[in-house]
Amino acid sequence: MPELPEVETVARGVNKRVRGDRIVQVWFGNRPQTFKTPPARQAKGLAGRTILAVHRTGKHIVFELGAAAGTAGRRNQPGNTDPKQTNANQTGKPEAQWIVHLGMTGRLLVTTPDSPVAPHTHARIELSSGHELRFQDPRRFGRLEFRNLRSGAAAFEAPGAEPLTIEASEFAEIFRRRRLHIKAALLNQTLLAGVGNIYADESLFQAGIRPRRRTNRLTTAELERLRLALRQILAHAIRLGGSSVSDYVDADGERGFFQLEHCVYQRTGEPCRHCGTPIQRIELAGRGTHFCSRCQP
Ligand SMILES: [Zn+2]
Question: What separation in angstroms does the CA of 81 have from each of 51, 84, 112, 130, 271?
Fold first, then answer.
């Protein structure tokens, strides 16, 4: 399942390629699970809009969209674009959002209309630059949503706090008030947004905290070590292009390679990189949890 660094990597890659582009034609599949907003309404809402920016919020990819500047004829003439007109709308305030959640196996790819369409492609969005944006998702836990901010829809917000920017006091407050295993608390998306199994295990290892510890028993110093470890590991993983242990592929179709650097995640029985003690695996919060019994007292 893509975690924060993977989603960030995809969002940045897509932003680099489609920012300022205009949506000329939209095709959506008919699998109801995929569409949080009915596909016909989404397609109508997206057509003709300029993509102002693409960014990550929590584990979602949010397309900020400008006004639908358009005449009906343009949809049939994808090549017929005045670049000046496209650029004119780039700096405006977002009027709508297209929100993509990758789920377990979702992929967002920037390609060209003539490239072969992979199975399980649920969305194809043709852009004025000649690019085509595709959403592919074999297991269909991903979601596509359209929000028209001009007609009163609220801008998308992630449920939990953002781990890359959260302050020490807020971080401590979130965990102190609860009595969860710290591993379970890190995975709880309503507390922190976007932290999954890999980065929970890795950050607990770096902070020297046993995954079973109760959140209300952690000291201020331990919580601060954890906050900094999480931020450092997530930022590092983003720099490396995210992990690719499952089906995650970034916007270019390139695999990330953070998995080469894992210290504990899926290294059961292998020697700890710090002290040589074999890495242990337990089940916690229903998830495989990896730690070093010596480095994480
Ligand atoms: Zn160790």
Answer: 15, 9, 16, 10, 59
Question: How far away, in angstroms, is 276 Cα from ligand 1 center?
Answer: 6
Residue with tokens 């690719």, as numbered in its chain: 244
DSSP string covering 33-81: GGBSS-HHHHHHHHTTEEEEEEEEETTEEEEEEEEE---GGGGG-TT--
For residue 170, how far is its CA from the centre of ligand 1 (angstroms)? Answer: 29
At residue 115's C-alpha, the angle toward residues 110 and 118, to 5°, is 80
Block mean pLDDT (10 aa), the chain, length 297: 85 91 95 92 96 94 89 41 44 90 89 91 96 92 95 92 96 94 95 91 97 96 97 88 54 58 92 97 94 97
If phi > 0 it is left, if psi is from -120 to 50 it is alpha, else beta; for residue 290 that is beta
**Amino acid 259: pLDDT:** 58
CA pair distance 100, 212, nearest whole angstrom: 33
pLDDT of residue 9: 86
Whether 36 sits among the annotated catalytic residues: the reply is no
Q: Which of 49, 59, 213, 225 is catalytic?
A: 59
Position 243 scores a pLDDT of 58
Distance, in Å, from the CA atom of 51 to the CA atom of 18, rounded to the nearest integer, reads 7
Catalytic annotation present for 59? yes
Relative to beta strand 287-291, strand 280-284 is antiparallel
* Closest by CA position to 53, among listed 10, 5, 16: 16
* pLDDT of res. 257: 55
User: Distance from the CA of 273 to the center of ligand 1, in angstroms?
Assistant: 7
Both tokens of 86, joined, read 């496209």
Q: Which pLDDT value is given to residue 104?
A: 86
Q: What integer best gives the mean pLDDT of the chain? A: 87
211 catalytic? Reply is no
> What is the distance in A from the centroid of ligand 1 to the CA of 281?
13
Q: How far is the CA of 210 from the centre of ligand 1 (A)?
A: 11
